[in-house]
DNA sequence: TTGTTGACTCTGA
DNA sequence: CTCAGAGCCAACA
């Protein structure tokens, strides 16, 4: 269980990302709005996902519809390949069409079941 | 405790 | 389209 506030925050982020269906993507800011943190922090949470996790971290991209570049360099290519395998199309600028493939959110039922209050939105 | 860094986003040029 | 600056906040030295 979460021993601290920040651990609880990360767990909320991961639980939410696990709800993103194949073929859809969410943005860091979208995740951040729901769990109640900043876009930067949700990005940091993705960087902290351990390998072999069941969290579909590759379905989280930036607000421009592009794969965010890492510090280390590698990783973007793998993320792009995983998304292609789920049917996403990338244009010449390496962007997906967010209007078509962006996730519409977890839904009220899931939110209520996971401790979120309606007045948060 | 202070300073730097980063898988972000928005605005403006 | 690209680029720069400001705001953001948890992690780390």
In short:
The protein is built from six helices and two strands; from the N terminus they run H-E-H-H-E-H-H-H. The chain is mainly alpha-helical and 121 residues long. Strands 1-2 form a two-stranded parallel ribbon.
CATH topology: Arc Repressor Mutant, subunit A
What string gives the helices and strands in order? Answer: HEHHEHHH
The geometry reads as: globular
Low-confidence stretches: none
The CATH fourth-level homologous superfamily: Winged helix-like DNA-binding domain superfamily/Winged helix DNA-binding domain
> Main sheet, how many strands, which sense, barrel?
2 strands, parallel
Beta-strand percentage range: under 5%
What percentage of residues falls in helices of 4 or more residues?
40-55%
What is the residue-mean pLDDT, rounded to a whole number?
92
Q: So how many helices?
A: 6
With strands numbered from the N-terminus, the spatial order across the biggest sheet is 1-2
Summing up helix and strand content along with how strands pair, one would put the structural category as: mainly alpha
Number of domains: 1
**If classified by CATH, what would the architecture be?**
Orthogonal Bundle
- Report the count of strand segments: 2
Span between N and C termini?
26 Å
CATH class: Mainly Alpha
